[in-house]
Amino acid sequence: MDTRRRGARYLAVALVAAAVLVAVALIRGRGETAMAARVGDTTISTREVDLIVRHARDEARNEGKDFPPEGTAAHQTLRRQALSLLVYHEELAQRAQALGLEVPEADVAAPIEVDVGVGGLDADAGADRVFIRQSVRGAALYRSIYARVTRGVSVSDTEVRAYYEARPEQYRELGVSLAAARAQIRRNLADTKRNAIMARWVRGMNGYYAGKVEYGPGFGPA
Asked: Going edge to edge, which strands form the sheet with 35-39?
């Protein structure tokens, strides 16, 4: 009887200890997913920021480059830069929605939350996943907005002729026909105009969100 009672007590103690460990893990998990920034109704977590930084660290190590240790000012600067990228992508997503753009949901869904820890994904695998996801998301949003805000760009024959006449030797050296030279000039001038328009649009977006982004402790604009 005493043996059974002692066994029951040991089991009870073990269960309590296990419960404490789970509680600690949950508390730590909540700390890892604290808010790094809020853009409108979207919250960007510190976990996602740190996974982006982890990816950068792994890339640096693969290339044999040094990487700032955690806790240093340089490492914190990289965290702010990573957050700045995530904030930028979220701003693009919200502006795309405001423009009524129909970008594939798979490309512009809210930033994914990756579980890392006991029973979760490997941290390095999660870092790669988040980085790739964000890269695809940012590129898709930028392309869609670029196409919309620059769709009215045109280049006149007068502009093409003036550009060619200012530097005819450049195209003679290439040995291209006049028609081919003019077609290339038209494309180049159109791209220059589009890029300038998009740059102004991005500056306007930055101005719109200036002061509207809420940052968590230890973070702020890069």
From this structure: 42-45, 35-39, 214-215
